[in-house]
Amino acid sequence: MTLQQNFRAHLRFAKARLRALLTPGVKLPPGKLDPSENSMYSDPMFYLDRFKIHGPVFKTSWGRHILVCIQGNAEGRRFLNTHQDKLRGISMSLKKLFPGGFLRNMTGEEHKTYRRILGTPLSSDLIAAHDQALRTLICQSLSAYCQVCQHEGPSRASFLRHLNMISSHALLQLIYGVSASDPRFHELWSLHDELGKDDLVWRTGGREVELFEQIRGHVCALAESQPQTADGRGRSCLSDICEQAPPDETVIGNLIYMVEMGRYDLYGLLHWVAKYLSGSPETIDALRNRAGKCPAGHDGADAANPLSRAVVLETLRLDQGEGVARRAFRDIVHDGHLYQEGTMFRMCLWDNHKNPERFPDPFRFDPTRFVKRDYQVDDWAPFGLDAHRCVGADVSIGLATLFVEELASGFAWDVVDDGPRIRGAYHWEPGDRFVVSLHQRPPST
What we know:
alpha+beta; 5-stranded mixed sheet
């Protein structure tokens, strides 16, 4: 941050303090405003520690902005629902690419309309329609990494490339309806790979616009020609939408960014799944011995979730689902606190999921929590708290569940090296020293 930016930030903070002082009956929440604050990027316990000091609502700095943090899913949901007409999502701006922009940033009736169009096809049924093809994809990608381990040696970068391949190929099939046997598949994958070579690209400049337009051309052609088989196995999100009405530019644009954003979130989730399973040999044994059903000591007939799915849900409790971010585009008064236009808000999901009253020994990986029961949104909400909950939640959980089943049943692995978590571009990630060596299990084992 430059000296000029630092000065402007201090001026903004001073104005917020003065206005709160001059407005009867309101105040700012506790917490320090310091534009040089960046501990949240190096300390995963930053928010939890501040809640212990300040209570369930506190303020801090997010660069030049005031960031208000709210603890507790119930309180976060109440805040979001009370002030939904004054809040917008904090995400990339895509209106220069297509008229309505990103679903995550929409509000009101526009959001309801496009959420219904885009979200309805993304059910667990979509995963079921492609079950065998997705399992084959997962096994082929993991087998390819086995070959890398055998001939070149295991590496974090190679493992992530193969996880990225699983998530990217799966979403091309589920969203667009193109599989690896389709000649259009490799062109679409190449274009998406270039659009975000190493990570999700937040900006939308000249090259990104050019690549987006090329992808859009392919997707529009698919919308006009994609068939659907009578048994539903040829289903995709795009084909389901086309059955109702021809998709407009905003629908097409959001489908493209479902693939583009979703593939990074998905392979990040698969990375965490591998990390947590690696430290839980008893869970791996239970998955193998009971084909993904309940571990010993639990009655499968009464279980809330099979163990394979519970592994994914517990992973999401521990990591990947970090927070819900919003920005006020009008002044807000809530519980005696004044929040000016421009204030940022964070509903701290990762931290809420570590509540020992709801999750005893909260930092321990224990999938049986979710075998025993399903949790309500006030306890567990890695995909969001309000009407903007991620529309791809069921698809993400379903695909990751298949990954757990195929990884545990068909492969064995050793952790070559490990280390503390690191802050990635958008999420905390397993440490850059976390490396696994993978090999296929003999069919008889």
